[in-house]
Amino acid sequence: MTPVLPLAILWAFIFACHAAPTVLAPSDVPVAQLHHFRSWVQYAAAAYCHDNTAAAPGHKLTCRVNNCPFVEEADTAVLRTLPNSGLTLTDTTGFIALDHTNQAIVLAIRGGTSARNTFFEFNFFLVQTDLCRGCMVEKGFLTLWSAIRAEALQAIEQAIAQNPNYEVIIVGHSLGASLATLAAVDVRKRGHTATLYSFGSARVGNRAFAAHVTAQTGNYRITHTVDPVPKLPLVAMGYSHTSPEYWITAPDNTTVETDEIEVLTGLVNWNGNSGTGFPSPLDFHAHFWYLCAFVRVSESSCRARQGVTTHDTRWSFKVLLALASSGASWLLDLER
């Protein structure tokens, strides 16, 4: 039996094999842009609330512990909720809502909260997609997006037809951010303009896919310090990130200022989150703090149901176990 290489060796292998040129464009984000980040992330927070993802059409979006004042102060109405854990094998959910105050059509996709999400989320296999020529995306992400795709796109098309002057905003955190990336490409392929705000997204596809998304306008991929999720799947497995990256360098539970977000460019860039070391379970605090960074609430802020928090620590370890297993398998295949 071929021994499994330690994760430290795997990490060194990644740096050695991927010396592709990167471009660094360090700069502070404008005040207005930081305001947008603080505002639209609250829709990602609202997607963790069961009251919003199981609501009837016309429901006004709410957050039980006042963690989304931007959303609650707006004149909002849910158009459609996406299949929840009771309806789909994949346990993927979210909502499409109208924000009349800010004249926006918002698609918000919830992050992962269950073992079912984890099973589909991190298969690490690249598969073909018709989103663009030569593009491949992670199989699990494509499976999850496909589970809600038809309903989401239909609702967005109807909303655009009825509100032609509204902008389309697509948001997500964690798993929701990865699916939001696929959703944005799908919406744009249909000839619509869409702005994407992804918080803590994993790498979604290959270099061709990342380049295709990067060539489009309106992408804001936000990472935070040592968050391990954006480091997955590994670059050595054929994955690349979209550009630019907005890397929050501020520690947990602080107010983020404009000079604490670095703007980095390049499909493979080791100067931001990706260069902060191998993904570790000890660093998941940085992943859970995205919502707190902007709305100052605790990790368990918006409970889907009593006793169920937005994230399960066991889920975090399962992701890294999947990484270790898949990474080792990938290296063994390479040796053959």
- The CATH topology is given as Rossmann fold
The CATH class label is Alpha Beta
Instruction: Quote the average pLDDT.
Output: 80
Question: What is the H level of CATH, i.e. the homologous superfamily?
Answer: Alpha/Beta hydrolase fold, catalytic domain
H/E series, N to C?
A: HHHHEEEHEEHEHEHEEEHH
Distance between the termini: 13 Å
Strand order of the largest sheet: 1-2-3-6-7-8-9-10
Rg from Cα: 19 Å
Spans of at least 5 consecutive residues whose pLDDT stays below 50 are 1-25, 85-89, 115-120, 292-315, 325-336
CATH second-level architecture: 3-Layer(aba) Sandwich
Give a topology summary:
Layout: H1 7-17, H2 31-46, H3 50-53, H4 69-72, E1 76-81, E2 94-99, E3 104-109, H5 115-121, E4 126-128, E5 136-138, H6 139-162, E6 167-173, H7 175-189, E7 194-199, H8 207-215, E8 219-224, E9 245-248, E10 261-264, H9 284-295, H10 313-335
Parallel strand pairs: 3-6, 6-7, 7-8, 8-9
Antiparallel strand pairs: 1-2, 2-3, 4-5, 9-10
Report on the architecture of this protein.
Helix content is 37%, strand content 15%. The protein has 336 residues and is of the alpha/beta class. It has a single domain, classed as Rossmann fold (3-Layer(aba) Sandwich). The strands form 2 sheets. It has an 8-stranded mixed beta sheet with strand order 1-2-3-6-7-8-9-10, with helices on both faces.
